[in-house]
Design goal:
Length: 441
């Protein structure tokens, strides 16, 4: 429903009587015009350009001129803490000139006198946004967010009022941000722009020279040359996966019905359950033919989904904590799975870094199906150690985020294959026993 009367941001509104303190650079003005021409805009821009300042002001402009009742604008950062650290001060600064605005520092929101409202969110708690509608959404540092943020959370919220979205960030491998950038070049209503440091001139030449000398080459390529293929700083598997791409091992990898499919699981409770679908050849190749993540699904639902796939299953590998009994039921998920027809092999409980080393070795002989296993591959590219943002020192443990599930699931396979030959081509077992279409030993 469009606004009428005093609910509309008319010529008498504060937005038109006062002058914003925001001053656009010429290139930012050009980007604004490009955004005006497209409902969905993907901007890949180097560090220190001023992406967040541009995006916050774009958000303010769109919400103040929105013709609908009670316009709503939203800004998403990878975490709620980052939203507060990165964008909150900008939102306050660039809305304080409007009389009658109300700031809520608890929920990170600004309400305007004519009913408009802008809120900040973190992708680490996407369900906090469910049920909301949005007239304009900014998604900042998309590469560091779970892939479902756009398709499952933000995009549906834009549907009924035909809202708009702006994606901004720097690359971090061939992940969902890369896919959005690629898609934006082919779909109606989508636009895109990629600006390297040399395209903007925002950073002085002598400073670029110093940055290039001080930073790791792949880090500079990613942050200032906007390279989607540069290895991610602190990534455990960046180099070995880059080698897999160069060697052509990320391609079409069809299912071979003469080999059983081994599944490797990371079982989620409050977060995702991740499953790799792998085939091992007698020659030592490991073929990742598929990858799935299930959010908010229980074991019965996941098992039904596995049965719908055309695969003949061999082993199913789970982490050791599958044997832990739930306090409420006194039953373990291992026992629940057995009741559903899946007999899990439980991976050995090796130290984490030993498992990461085993995975790194395994990846040297892995092939990945680009379509069905592409999301899992992208997660592996981004799986990295945690960095102290103040000191720049890397932790001895991985950063736990949406990429961890794929990495942990493949680690289960690597741990088991290191203790065996890794060749399970003949290890067909009784699994999914109530499905008559499967081969049994």
């Amino acid at each position: 429903m469009k606004a009428t009367g005093h609910n509309t941001a008319s010529n008498s509104s504060p937005a038109n009587r006062l002058i914003s303190p925001y001053r656009e650079r010429p290139l930012q003005a050009s980007l604004r015009l490009l955004c005006d021409q497209n409902r969905f805009m993907v901007l890949v821009i180097h560090r220190r350009f001023g992406k967040t300042v541009f995006a916050i002001n774009r958000l303010i402009q769109e919400i103040l001129k929105c013709p609908y009742e009670a316009p709503r604008g939203h800004y998403f950062a990878p975490t709620f803490k980052q939203a507060k650290n990165i964008a909150w001060d900008y939102l306050l600064r660039f809305t304080s000139w409007i009389p009658g605005t109300v700031q809520n520092r608890t929920e990170l929101s600004v309400s305007f006198p004519l009913g408009q409202k802008i809120m900040l969110f973190g992708a680490d708690n996407p369900d906090a946004f469910r049920g909301a509608y949005s007239d304009y959404s900014v998604i900042d540092e998309v590469a560091m967010m779970p892939p479902r943020i756009w398709g499952e959370i933000v995009r549906p919220a834009l549907a009924d009022r035909e809202g708009k979205a702006l994606f901004i960030g720097t690359p971090a491998g061939h992940n969902q941000f890369f896919k959005l950038y690629e898609k934006a070049g082919t779909l109606d209503g989508w636009g895109r722009a990629l600006l390297r440091h040399g395209d903007t001139g925002v950073i002085a030449d002598h400073e670029i020279k110093a940055l290039r000398a001080e930073m790791e080459p792949e880090e500079f390529e990613q942050e200032f040359e906007c390279s989607f293929t540069a290895a991610i700083r602190g990534a455990y598997y960046g180099k070995v996966l880059a080698e897999a791409e160069r060697a052509g091992r990320v391609c079409s990898v069809p299912y071979d019905d003469s080999l059983p499919v081994t599944t490797a699981w990371d079982l989620g409770m409050a977060d995702a359950t991740a499953i790799w679908f792998l085939q091992a050849t007698r020659g030592g190749e490991i073929r990742a033919i598929d990858y799935e993540e299930y959010h908010g699904a229980g074991l019965p639902e996941i098992v039904r989904a596995l049965r719908q796939k055309p695969y003949q299953y061999g082993k199913h590998i789970a982490p050791h904590d599958i044997r832990v009994r739930e306090l409420g039921t006194g039953t373990s998920r291992y026992e629940v799975a057995a009741g559903l027809g899946i007999r899990f092999d439980v991976a050995r409980n090796l130290p984490l870094m030993d498992g990461i080393d085993a995975t790194r070795t395994l990846l040297k002989r892995c092939w990945f199906d680009r379509e069905k296993a592409g999301d899992g591959f992208n997660h592996l590219q981004q799986y990295r150690t945690e960095e102290n943002q103040r000191t720049g020192v890397f932790s001895l443990r991985p950063l736990h985020d949406h990429t961890s599930h794929a990495a942990d699931a493949l680690r289960m396979y690597a741990v088991e294959s290191r203790g065996n030959s890794g060749n399970w081509g003949s290890a067909i077992q009784y699994d999914l026993v109530d499905n008559p279409g499967r081969r049994h030993a």
